[in-house]
Design brief:
The protein has 353 residues and is α+β, with helices and mostly antiparallel strands. It has a domain of 44 residues. 63% of the residues lie in helices and 9% in strands. The strands form two sheets. It has a four-stranded antiparallel sheet. It has a two-stranded antiparallel sheet with strand order 2-3. Helix 1 packs across helix 12 and helix 2 packs across helix 12. The longest helix is centred in the C-terminal third of the chain and has 38 residues.
């Protein structure tokens, strides 16, 4: 067994020596690989990633069920308590970020690049500031040559019918957004990657703000509709009460000295009408205040644990690593040629001859 192991080690050492003996070939391959690696590294766009961490409030009514669910999840058991919860819960936040409607709503956000210091929309930044690698030029040329010219369109982008370019931009943004939700603590970590560090920080802050607005709008939709309804009733009841009050006052002032039963009956009727309008108005005021309190109660609160910061270091693969990896692939290709492929080609030519 030791002899086999020793012979195996000798074979490996011999193979390495055989590859290193071809110094000129190895030098050419490594040189070409290094040049190719430099070209790839310079053509690859740097990317920067920043994140924001926030924690949503936990309602007191759901504390017991959520605690049981957390205990069960630690043992790998799903109690499926979400059926009695809202339709929007933390686990589907990534799906919200991935929707075309949400992504397109980000296009109008004003961003400022760190290098140029120019302010533009996020859509303009994505369209004009990206670096296209050289190996993509043939595909872009063929695609532009084959695709039909689209009529110039103005206004907002239609999520229902995206152009190829806009669809590609949406896919790029979708891949740039990250959202992780801790099932046990419900802490949300939102990350944003962009070619510019300042834009990455601005968009990460925008994402957490838009998410809070989206969730708040959903959770308070019904109570806000109720509030709007009671505000309408409040305006109508107040107008009716003021009208009845003025009518009663004008009638009473005009007929102060009247002692006829007819005038007294009419005055009592107007007074009763005014009192009825006041009771309705007073009841709606109470309901309006209750509706406002419900809106405040249903509005979720978020605590930002970590705000986004402008990253100083790129999150993409360093260019030096790209060059080293390309040279390693070149060395592997050279080794395969020297050890296997070259002899295989020679033997095949000999057999054919």
């Amino acid at each position: 067994m030791d002899v086999n192991r020793q012979s195996h080690e000798i074979d490996i050492v011999g193979s390495i020596k055989k590859v290193l003996e071809e110094k000129k070939l190895l030098a050419v391959v490594l040189g070409v690989s290094a040049v190719l690696g430099v070209c790839i590294a310079l053509s690859t766009q740097k990317s920067y990633t920043t994140s924001v961490v926030l924690a949503p409030e936990v309602s007191a009514s759901g504390t017991m069920s959520e605690s049981l669910s957390d205990m069960a999840s630690s043992f790998g058991i799903d109690l499926n308590t979400k059926g009695s919860m809202d339709a929007i819960y933390p686990e589907i936040y990534p799906d919200i970020f991935a929707s075309n409607d949400f992504i397109i709503s980000l296009f109008d956000v004003k961003v400022t690049t760190k290098e140029e210091g120019k302010t533009k929309t996020y859509y303009e930044h994505l369209k004009s500031d990206g670096k296209v690698p050289f190996w993509s030029y043939p595909g872009i040329f063929i695609r532009n040559f084959l695709k039909k010219k689209e009529a110039g369109k103005g206004g907002k982008i239609n999520p229902f019918m995206l152009s190829e370019d806009d669809e590609g931009i949406c896919n790029g943004v979708r891949n740039s957004i990250g959202c992780l939700v801790d099932k046990k603590t419900s802490v949300i970590t939102i990350s944003m990657t962009d070619m510019d560090p300042m834009v990455a920080a601005i968009m990460a802050d925008t994402l957490q703000s838009r998410l809070q607005s989206y969730i708040t709008e959903y959770k308070t939709k019904k109570v806000r509709n109720d509030l709007k309804y009671y505000e309408k009733l409040y305006a109508e009841s107040k107008a009716d009460y003021v009208k009845a009050q003025r009518l009663y006052a004008s009638f009473s002032d005009a007929d102060q000295d009247a002692v006829l039963q007819t005038f007294q009956s009419k005055r009592d009727e107007l007074e009763n009408e005014m009192q009825l309008k006041y009771n309705i108005y007073n009841g709606i005021v109470a309901k309006l205040q209750n509706a406002k309190a419900k809106v405040q109660e249903q509005t979720p609160a978020f605590t930002i644990i970590q705000r986004p910061t402008v990253p100083n270091r790129a999150s993409s693969t360093p260019r030096s690593v790209m060059v080293i990896m390309t040279m390693m692939f070149g060395f592997i290709a050279d080794s395969l040629w020297v050890l296997f492929i070259r002899d295989f080609v020679k033997n095949r030519k000999t057999n054919n001859a």
